[in-house]
Give the backbone structure.
Amino acid sequence: MRAGLKTLIIFMVAHSIALAQTSDMADATERSRTDEEHKARALESERARLGNQRIQTEVEIRAREEQRRLAAAEQERRRAEDEATRKAPPVAASSAPVPKEAGDSDDMSRTLQQLRSLGELKDDGYITEDEFRRIKQKILDSRL
């Protein structure tokens, strides 16, 4: 009976060791799976952060490009206004317009060309409607 008892004790100890090892392996497997899930969540979070950062950068680049475009358009509008003002003959100092001769076709065609150019500037958006009217009036007043 002693041999059987020894065998039983050895069997129980071996079985306990095997159960402990199995439990340790299950715990290690669970920790490994939890670590992998944590790493996957961290990777997903980093990807989302980088995506948001890229979108923000693109928005900032577009905003800078739009500012440059608007500044260039404003500069072109001012240049065109200055050019139109320079091309327009100076207005007489007296309040009453001085009539020109009816047969002066060169002046008439130059005035018409100035008005056409001015209309193109307005149509292209380089000058506003108010600026168009003001410059047109200067051109027409200088014609009279």
Notes: Residues 96-144 form one domain. The mean pLDDT is 82.
